[in-house]
From TrEMBL:
Its EC number is 1.1.1.95. Belongs to the D-isomer specific 2-hydroxyacid dehydrogenase family. This is D-3-phosphoglycerate dehydrogenase. It comes from the Bacteria. Keywords: Amino-acid biosynthesis, NAD, Oxidoreductase, Serine biosynthesis. Pathway: Amino-acid biosynthesis; L-serine biosynthesis; L-serine from 3-phospho-D-glycerate: step 1/3. One of its GO terms (biological process) is L-serine biosynthetic process. Signal peptide: none annotated. NCBIfam families: PGDH (TIGR01327). Catalyzes the reversible oxidation of 3-phospho-D-glycerate to 3-phosphonooxypyruvate, the first step of the phosphorylated L-serine biosynthesis pathway. Also catalyzes the reversible oxidation of 2-hydroxyglutarate to 2-oxoglutarate. GO terms for molecular function: NAD binding; phosphoglycerate dehydrogenase activity.
Length: 544
């Protein structure tokens, strides 16, 4: 059987992960770590891949990702996604996933290893002895027990470090805006504002992601506020510490020592002053480099890709809500209903969009409606945009265009188990349409403008407004027949007898232009629109 999906692996991945991918006949695996150092070749190779697995060595920059049309998934075998331009990936409709948890313990242990090695001068003492010296007093260290450790970032790694430091008899202070003070106390950590942390700690360790907000979290002002003789460990990301400011603080004696596992850039230049500094202990980004962590993240990365590309299941995505297989199976038809409603709106009114209001009623109101709104938006924008729109990027693309997509929810419905209504405001008009599923998957249009209607939301639909009078519907039928266009179904709706009414005719083919001209010339026919939707059962690739 020929493989369906091509997966590129551009960083060193444990063979156990590669085996998981290779064992699935749907997957062709291409391993090429040279690509990580060649952005142009990487860009070209990604053009022929459905998924890519990376670690921290591959930079997925905007230049590499822009314009990628085949690539659907990026999996980071590890935690930090700062080497991926997630914004560009999202705009391109590419899901970005990571494997949190798999390397937590190894990273926490490495942090403790650095903390101990720094305090006990392990590296210089080892080098000295190997050079033939027996220098015991020069390498007198400092004990961890009884000292205060400040942890910035109390996520998985930060908490695991806290637990271990407490085991060494340290007092632990912590700062994390997303951990409640009560939970921190339960973990034995004293929640502490950053300003207070600097002046109270003998040791500081960082465990936050690198973002625009955390870049240079520690700079000259923070070093100035620190307790003299503080020791610093960084096993998170190089950009978190302003490196020249750290060197100055080390030289001034304010900081007694630093242990650094991560750099900016990686690898650092051979003459990097921080790497060469005598008070700095360095390792080459080894936090996650244990056999156990590497097997765990590689196997998990492979499973994430198989689940996503093979089954449409989204786990550990950083740029879209997670979606498991059962939920996707259950929501699939509602997602498609939302998408078709969006496609209908786009064709009913081609004015400049201002806002969209989606109203969810009944059972569907308690489901993941944000995804249905994304599906609506994808359907609504897909013909207008050159880039492909899917569940990942639809809401972002709308937001970038200044279009607000809002939702309302209500458990009550009058006639339907679940009802989705969309109101789109453009510079021309405000248009309203509602749809519901009949049975599990029959998609029905049940409201158009002020009218109730009931017809299949599929294929070619001729929608017309007209005066509610005898004979008009018959002449439309005759006209279609004369042009050899077969009518599959016909439905009419009206607000009052003898007033303006709406008609929806499901056709087997698109009527020729002469037929439409003849229709428009019929007396008492006010508007005619031809809508083209997917046929019954047809789903886009991203919903299969
Ligand atoms: N050296 C290595 O090999 C490894 C490095 N890492 C790095 O460690 C970081 C943490 O990993 P995990 O603990 O697994 O991630 P996590 O997502 O569980 O924890 C990150 C924590 O940082 C907190 N945070 C975010 N901004 C903050 C701020 N401004 N101040 C204080 N806290 C803030 C978050 O609320 C979260 O609790 C990763 O983002 C990655 O950069 C992770 C694994 C291996
Ligand atoms: O998981 C992370 O964030 C790490 O920093 C580990 O990086 P690596 O996969 O070892 O290149």
């Amino acid at each position: 059987m020929a493989a369906t999906y091509r997966v590129l692996v551009t960083d060193k991945l444990a063979s156990e992960g590669l085996e998981v991918l290779k064992a699935d006949p749907r997957f062709e695996v291409v391993v090429d770590s040279k690509l990580a150092g060649d952005p142009q070749a990487l860009r070209t190779a990604l053009g022929e891949a459905d998924g890519v697995v990376i670690r921290s060595g591959t930079m997925l920059t905007p230049e590499v990702l822009r314009g990628q049309t085949r690539l659907k998934a990026i999996v980071r075998a590890g935690v930090g996604v700062d080497n991926i331009d997630v914004t560009t990936a999202t705009r391109q409709g590419i899901v970005v996933m990571n494997t949190p948890g798999g390397n937590t313990l190894s990273t926490a242990e490495h942090t403790l290893a650095l903390l101990l090695a720094l305090s006990r001068n392990i590296a210089p003492a080892c080098a000295s002895l190997k050079a033939g010296r027996w220098d015991r007093s020069k390498y007198t260290g400092s004990q961890l027990a009884g000292k205060t450790l400040g942890i910035i970032g109390l996520g998985r790694v930060g908490q695991a470090v806290a637990q271990r430091a407490i085991g060494f008899g340290m007092k632990v202070l912590g700062h994390d805006p997303f951990l409640s003070p009560d939970r921190a106390r339960e973990l034995g950590i004293e929640p502490t504002p950053l300003a207070e942390m600097w002046c109270r700690c003998d040791y500081l360790t960082l465990h936050v992601p690198l973002t625009e907000e955390t870049r240079h979290l520690i700079g000259p002002a923070q070093f100035a506020a620190m307790k003299p003789g503080v020791r610093i460990v960084n096993c998170a990301r190089g950009g978190l510490i302003d490196e020249p400011a750290l060197i100055a603080a080390l030289d001034a004696g304010k900081v007694a020592g630093a242990a650094i596992d991560v750099f900016e850039p990686e690898p650092p230049p051979a003459d990097d002053p921080l790497v060469r500094h005598p008070k700095v202990l360095v390792t080459p980004h080894l936090g996650a480099s244990t056999e156990e962590a590497q097997i765990s993240v590689a196997v998990e990365a492979a499973r994430l890709l198989i689940d996503f590309l093979g089954e449409g299941r989204v786990r550990f995505a950083v740029n879209m809500p997670n979606l498991d297989k059962a939920e996707l199976d259950e929501l699939r038809h509602h997602l498609e209903l939302g998408r078709r409603l969006g496609m209908l709106h786009a064709q009913m009114d081609r004015g400049a969009a201002r806002s969209v209001k989606l109203d969810y009623r009944g059972d569907i109101a308690s489901r993941n409606t944000r995804l249905i709104s994304a599906a609506f938006t994808a359907g609504w924008m897909e013909t207008a945009l050159t880039e492909s729109v899917n569940l990942v990027n639809a809401l972002v693309l709308a937001q970038e265009r200044g279009i607000q997509i809002t939702e309302s929810h209500s458990r009550d419905t009058e006639d339907f188990g679940s009802l989705i209504s969309a109101e789109v405001v453009t510079d021309r008009k405000t248009y309203h349409a509602s749809a519901a599923l009949f049975g599990r998957q029959r998609m029905r249009l049940v409201g158009l403008g002020p009218y109730q209607i009931d017809c299949d939301l599929e294929g070619v639909m001729l929608i017309f407004t007209h005066l509610d009078r005898p004979g008009l519907i018959g002449s439309i039928g005759t006209l279609m027949g004369n042009h050899n266009v077969n009518i599959a179904q016909m439905n009419v709706g009206r607000a009052v007898k003898g007033g303006e009414a709406i008609g929806v005719v499901n056709l087997d083919s698109i009527p020729p232009e002469e037929a439409l001209e003849a229709l428009r010339a019929l007396p008492d026919l006010y508007s005619v629109t031809v809508i083209q939707l997917p046929e019954r059962g047809e789903l886009p690739a991203w919903l299969l």
